[in-house]
Design goal:
The complex is a heterotrimer of chains A (261), B (231) and C (51). With 261 residues, chain A is mostly helical. Chain A contains eight helices and no strands. Chain B has 231 residues and is mainly α. In chain B, helix 3 runs antiparallel to helix 4. The longest helix of chain B is centred in the middle third of the chain and has 30 residues. By secondary structure, chain C is mostly helical. Chain C contains one helix and no strands. The termini of chain C are far apart. The relative contact order of chain C is 0.07. Classes of the chains: A mainly alpha (261), B mainly alpha (231), C mainly alpha (51). Chains in contact: A-B, A-C. The interface between A and C is medium-sized, with 34 and 28 residues.
Chain lengths: 261, 231, 51
Amino acid sequence: MTEKNKIEQKPRKNPLVLFIHKLGSPAYFYRFSGKFIPWFWAIFLVLTAIAMYQAFFVVPADYQQGQSFRILYLHVPAAWMSLLAYSVMAVFAFIALVWRIRIVEILAMCSAPVGAAFTVVTLAAGSLWGRPTWGTYWVWDARLTSELVLLFLYLGVIGLYNSIDEPRKAARAACLLALVGAVNLPIIHYSVKWWNTLHQGSSISLMGGSSIDSSMLWPLLIMSVAVKFFYGANLLTRARVKLLEQDMRKAWVKDIVREGK
Amino acid sequence: MNVQQANGSMSGAFFALVRRDLLLAFRRRTELLFPVIFLLVVVSLFPLGIGPSPQLLGRIAPGVIWIAALLATVISLDALFRSDYEDGTLEQFVISGHPLTLIALAKILTHWLVAGLPIVLMSPLLAVWMNLPSGTLGVMVATLIIGTPILSLIGSIGVGLTISLKRGGQLLSLLVFPLYVPILIIATAAVMASADALPYTQFLGLLAAGLITSLTLAPFAAAAALKISLS
Amino acid sequence: MDHTPFIAGAYGIGVIVFLWAAFAPLVKKKSITRDIRRLIQVEERSVDSNP
C-alpha cells in the first residue's frame, strides 16, 4: 500500500477534448447524435405549435398590411435560418479543410441542403407575401435578391459535392467553395443593398413602415428558436445517413444494422 | 445492351437508345439540374446588371429569357455526344448498321427532354422575375415549346462537327450562335408583337416551319458531321 | 383582395419543403439499410459455406 505505484500515470486528458475526439469516430458520433434527434424534433414541434397558435389567433391583424403579414412568421425565421445555416456550414467547412476531420466534412455537406430548403421557403413566402402587399410576386429588392444569390451559392456547393465521385475529395472541394461563398456573402449583401438604393426601384422593405408591436414579436422569436431545432435535427439525421452510406462495408455499420437502429 | 434490340427494328433501336440515355442522365440526377440552375442564374444577372425597374425589365424580358435559353442549351449540348465519343460507344453506333441519322435523332430527343423541356417549364418563373407583360406568357411558352427543339436539332450539327476536338465546347458556341440568330429574332418578335397587341401568329407559324424543316434535315446533317468527326 | 390563398400558399410551400427536407434522408436510410442487410446476408452465407 505504501509502495508507490510504479506504473506511470498518464496525464489526464481534458474531458472536453477527449469528448470531441470521440465524436470524430463515426460509430460514436452516430450513436451519440441519435439520442438528440428525437428531442430536437419534439422541441421544434412544440415551439412551432405555440408560435403558430400565437401567430394566427393571438396577434391582431396589421392595419396596414391586413392578414397577409402573418406570413412574416414563416418568412423571417426561414430567412434568418438560411443565413445561419450558411455560417454554420462555413465554420464546419473551415474546420474540415484545416483539420481534415471526416465527420466535420460530412456535417458541412449535410448543412447545405437544409440551408437551401430554408432559402427556398424564404423566397417563396416572400414572393407570396409580396403579391397582396405590393402587387407583384417578385420584386428585386435588396433582401430578396441577396437571398436569391444565397440560394445560388447553396446550389453550387450541393452541385459540386454531388458531381465528384470520391467522397472526401468532393467534400473538400465543396467546403472550399462554401468558404469562398462565405467570404463573398457580406460583399454580395452590401453590394446588392447599394445597388438597390442606386436604382431606387423598390426601396420598400417587406416589413413596411409600421413599427413592430411587442405582441407581434413573440411568435417571431419563438419561431426563430424553433427552426434552429429543425436545423439541428435534420442536420444530424442527414449526417448519420451519410455516414451509413459511406461506411456501408465497415463493421460498426453492420453492428448498428444488426441491432436494428 | 442498348442499341441491339431483339428484332433490330429501327423504332426498337430508337426507343432503346432514348431509354438508355435517359437512364444514364437520371443516374446523375443532380447534374440534370445544372441547365436549370444556369438558366436561373443567368436571368437573375440581368436585373442585377441593369437595375430592377419593372418597366425596363418588362421591355427586355422576351429577349433576356430567350438568350438565357440559348446559353443554357449550348452549355448542355456538348454533353450530347461527348461521353459516348470518349468511351468509343459512338463508334460502335456508327458500325452497328443502324442508320446514324436515327441515332442522332434519338440523342437529340433526349437532349431536348433533359435540357429544352426544363427551359419551357421554368419559363413562367423567369417571366415573373423579368416582369414579362402578363398577356404574353402564353406566346412566350409557345415560342419556347416550338423553338427549343430547333435549338437541340441545329445544335446537334455543331456538336457533331466539334466532338473530336479538345476545345470543342468553346468552338461549339461560336458555330451554333449564328445559326440560332433567326430563331431568336422570330421568337422574340412573336412575344413583343403579342405585348403590343399586334398579330403574332405568323411568327409562330414561321417557327413551326423551322421546326419541321430542322426535324427532317438536321439529323442527316448531324449524322454526316459525326461520320466526318469519327473518320 | 382576400389574403387567405397567399397565406395558405406560403405556409403550404413551407410545410411541403420542410416535410421533404425532414423525410428525404429517412427514405435514403431505408434503402441503405436494405443494402447493408443484403451485404450482411451475403457475408454470413459465405462464412457458413467456409467452415
